[in-house]
Amino acid sequence: xxxxxxxxxxxxxxxxxxxxxxxxxxxxxxxxxxxxxxxxxxxxxxxxxxxxxxxxxxxxxxxxxxxxxxxxxxxxxxxxxxxxxxxxxxxxxxxxxxxxxxxxxxxxxxxxxxxxxxxxxxxxxxxxxxxxxxxxxxxxxxxxxxxxxxxxxxxxxxxxxxxxxxxxxxxxxxxxxxxxxxxxxxxxxxxxx
Length: 193
Known about the structure:
Shape: elongated
Radius of gyration: 19 Å
Distance between the termini: 58 Å
Number of strands: 0
Helix content: 55-70%
Order of helices and strands: HHHHH
Oligomer: single chain
Number of domains: 1
Largest sheet: none
Strand content: under 5%
C-alpha cells in the first residue's frame, strides 16, 4: 500500500526542520540586532523589523507550502487506506484537508503582513492559522483512532490526541490575551501598561 507514494516520508521531516529553522534563525537575528528581548518574545515580534522580517516571511511562506504538501500526502494516504478498510468517510477526510489548507493560508498571511505594518490583517491570519491548526490536528487525531488498529497503533493515537488537547488548551488563553491587547508594540518602557 505504501508503495503508491514512494519517497514522500521526508516531507513531514523537512517541514518540521524548515519551520524550526525559520523560527530559530529569525529569533537569533532579532536578538543580535537588539530588536527583541532574548527571553521568550512573541514569534511575530522576531519577524517584524528588517533584516529578520524578510527571512521570517520567506521561510514561513516555504513552511506553509511544505505544510500544504504534507497535508495533501496525508489526505491521499488516508484515501488509499480507506479503500480497503472504510474507516472514515471521504467527506470527513476532505473537510480535514480543507481546514488544514485554511491554516496554511493563515500562515502565509502572517508571514506576508508583518505585525507592526498591518496588525489587523496579521492578527486575522494568526487566528486563522492557529484556529485551523487546532481543528486540523483534532480531526486527524479522530481519524487516527478510527483507523486503529489496522493503520495506527493506539500509542500513536494517544500521542496525537494529547497534542490536540494541549493545542486546544493553549488556544484559549491566546484568544483571551490577544483580545485584551489594544495596541501592537514591541518596545516597551517601564511604567507602560
